[in-house]
From TrEMBL:
Protein known as: Succinate--CoA ligase [ADP-forming] subunit beta
Annotated signal peptide: none
PROSITE patterns in alphabetical order: ATP_GRASP, SUCCINYL_COA_LIG_3
Source organism of this protein record: Prosthecobacter debontii
Biological function: Succinyl-CoA synthetase functions in the citric acid cycle (TCA), coupling the hydrolysis of succinyl-CoA to the synthesis of either ATP or GTP and thus represents the only step of substrate-level phosphorylation in the TCA. The beta subunit provides nucleotide specificity of the enzyme and binds the substrate succinate, while the binding sites for coenzyme A and phosphate are found in the alpha subunit.
HAMAP family per the UniProt record, alphabetical: Succ_CoA_beta
Cofactor info, note text: Binds 1 Mg(2+) ion per subunit.
Residue ranges of domain ATP-grasp in the record: 9-234
Subunit structure: Heterodimer of an alpha and a beta subunit. The beta subunit determines specificity for GTP.
Amino acid sequence: MNIHEYQAKELFEKFGVATPPGKVAATAEEAGKIAEELGGAGLVVKAQVHAGGRGKGTFKNGFKGGVHVINTAAEAQDIAGKMLGQTLVTHQTGPEGKLVSKVLVAKAVDISKEYYFAILFDRGSSGHALIASTEGGMNIEEVAEKTPEKITKEFVHPTIGLQAYQARKVAASLGLKGPLANQAVKLFTALWNLYLKSDCSLVEVNPLAITTDNQVVALDAKFNFDDNALYRQKDVVAMRDTTEEDPREVAASEFGLNYIGLDGNIACLVNGAGLAMSTMDIIKLHGGEPANFLDVGGGASKEQVTAAFKIILGDPNVKGILVNIFGGIMDCNIIATGIIAAAQEVSLTIPLVVRLEGNNVEAGKKTLAESGLAITSADGLTDAAQKIVAAVAQAA
Ligand code: ADP
Ligand code: MG
């Protein structure tokens, strides 16, 4: 789950991470009022979307830049008016862009230098890592590729937590000394507390800025939260903005389904992420293109399969469905009954290939065969992939 920059700012304030004051607005008039409250001059207006690269982005109406420095309340209102209700395209949004329905009005600072700083979950070390670079404000993937020596990585043990010497080491790697180093250490420590207490998997501050009056402040924020911990993060869940997410993924999450849309035409419905990955692979191996990743988890109940079919069929590119279910604890016959009921409920008209394996598989296959529906049974992964690829090719 992600949040907006203005919401990240609220978390920053709660955990004592230094950041310029600001407030969110949903209308141009509101933006003007906030600008007045903040003193009118020396402010920034920033488009709020779940994507970076806003500064260099362009709106579809031709207006340039999702981040503007302004110097009067009237100007804030004018700029907000040009952003709100418009679609911003950045290198992270894809060509379709993202609709801006809120703007942040915040104090501008005079930047003397920009840095990159992040804390993230690091699978490689089974722990956490602090990442810092003197190349702030830039695309960090590009820095990592071209000048990896400009990136510092400090690993944090999950039970010991961030140690003061580690925060100092990272500050030193950025060339910060004296009071600036102290401020950076304070900010890193506050951010670490925020990261840990809020069950984040990533907090990225790009840029972390040093101002001309020697303050260390976070000017931008990107957050990712561990979805498995959201049950104990009510405040975080309350920040969720589903309008920023793929509507199919939102619908899927309501039924405990993991769905990710792709651009092929063969939809897959699978239980277990590993099996889902191999199903997508085998479809490709046999010349097909998967339309999605869809993991129904351990269950595959009638309700889940029906919801999954509906989501799958909402994609106009889908020309066939491959169901690949392993009945472990679940009985294949119950799954087969669920698939039939779901196919009937959505009045399925495109080819459906079902591969069942495991507990009570023979009964499951018999149920499918006797259903009277045009369901093709398959034996094994290869047979399943070949059958669905052939069926889709034939239908085309
Ligand atoms: P994005 O990464 O989406 O482009 P940022 O929040 O990083 O958005 O803003 C882009 C640039 O705008 C920053 O690198 C910084 O130079 C400038 N900027 C952002 N916020 C402020 C601020 N409060 N004061 C001064 N400059 C800012
Ligand atoms: Mg940024």
